Amino acid sequence: MGRSWRFAGLMLVAGVVMAFGQWRSGQPPLGFVPFAVLAVLFSPLVFPRSLTSAEARLRSARDGRTVVYWRPGCTYCLRLRLRLGRRAGRAHWVDIWRDPEGAAAVRAVTGGDETVPTVVLPDGAVVNPDPAWLRARLRA
Asked: What sign does the dihedral 55-58-62-64 (CA atoms) show?
């Protein structure tokens, strides 16, 4: 499944525009740095490789892992991912903007909207869970 680089690209373009403006006015082009950091944070590189919803459910049924539905640009998803650290690899990640079936699964859990992160555990689903709680669940 492909990865969405839309937000990362937008951040890079904004950084280049700002740096060019600073350079033209004789200032050092340091405005690029925060945009480059945001580009990395909003890129799919921060998240484990996304699966399709069907593939994630199938793998979860086999190995009992948690399924996390997310989307690029979501600050809550980013916060969850960063706070999980290495334990994020113990879950299957589904990008709902790249997988319509994943978006439908989130809408089924949340009552019609696409609130992410939505975490599906073997014993139920949780919308926007506390990262510490999920980290403890993934540790077990």
From this structure: positive
pTM recorded for the entire structure:
0.73
Contacts of 58 (CB under 8 A, 6+ apart): none
Q: Are 77 and 70 in contact (CB under 8 A)?
A: yes
Tokens matching residue 5? 């680089």
What does DSSP assign to residue 49?
P
Q: Give whole-number Cα distances, 46 to 18, 19, 56, 85, 95, in Å.
A: 24, 25, 19, 10, 13
Tens digit of each residue's pLDDT (9 = 90 or more) over 83-133: 998 888 889 999 999 899 999 999 999 999 999 999 999 888 999 999 999
Q: Dihedral of the CA atoms 70, 75, 131, 121 (nearest 10)?
A: -10
* C-beta separation of 129 from 118 below 8 A: no
